[in-house]
Amino acid sequence: MEDWNAYTMGGSLEMTLPEGAKIPLSSCAKTYKVRDSQGVVWVWMSNETPPCSEKLPYFEHYSRPDLQAISTIHELPYDHSILLENFMDPAHVPISHDRSDFYSKREDAQPLVFETIERSSRGFAGKWSKSRNPTFINFLRFEAPCALQNNHEYIDKTGRKQYVSSLFLCRPIGQGKSMVITRFGTTLKSPVMKFLPKWFFHQNICKVLEQDMGFLSSQNEILMKEMTPVGKMYINLGSCDTWVLEYRKWKDRVGHGMPYYFGHSSISLPNEPALVEQYRAGLDAGISASMPAKGGIADIYASNPINRYSRHVVHCKKCRDSVKGFGFWRNTLVGLAVLAVALAVLASRTQWKVLFLVSAALFLGGQYVCYSALNLVTTNFIRSHRRL
User: Would you place residue 370 in the very low, low, confident or very high pLDDT band (cuts 50, 70, 90)?
Assistant: First the structure.
């Protein structure tokens, strides 16, 4: 179609051809059609079927001109289905993400009310709330294989309808690995979203994902080890696990196109696991969620699927730029502090010594702020527990 552009998957030819020979078709680069829709680039993976724009997911709230949104991207060390299942589970939020935002509190954990209003081969939709006669209703929609929305609508004190939306675009990048684009949007006019830098919101979303990471990667290991459908391993409660059960049953019905999957009552695994762990990912991820593990030394970051730098910063231009900027100003301020101390030693008058020493203290304070911000962007969340 005319709206779709060409994208080429490059490769290399590792053989020598005789003079005059044609390049084999198997060595030619594959070209796919792509299209930008609502800020997301979609790839049409079929060369046999023409691209169809009607099959592109459309997210109504993100076309609203008054919607303020924050988008981030993350790579995570567990399976695509576990990633989706986690985002479908509202019951875990007050427990796992206690005090991570303005409304998640452990003491607010409670049974929830769910209602499935739509099922099809393309997914399912429903609504959930905290009571039978709720003030607020949340709407969830799963569009196979990767899109999950959780939307909330309500009337504010002025009589105006407000929208709050969470969108998760989840894609597998290998067995035991996944990637997600998160988008959080609201029509509420908040000056905080305008004045705080993007990296601040990004690190907070990283923190939320890290609070679940140890448990989810361990769950991935258990499923691979037991090789058993999830319905035989876990009890799904109607008061909290309705969407998880819907998703796993959808896998049983129509999820067989996945190269491997865990359904509620069925399972499909490769003969040989694509991911061979050299050490326990769950244990490693658990450690990283309880201490500032960068995966490297000082400001040198090793490639590691559990550290924040590898999972987010390398994929995010805004956070890479902020790391570069904080590093530059930190080094500059340290240099200025050293210079100010040297000038204080050389100064002959007391007032000049005091001025230079005060300046050195301010420079060191500034470098500490840069150092703290740098750690906030690149270092995993340190979990602390509290008693109720």
Answer: very high
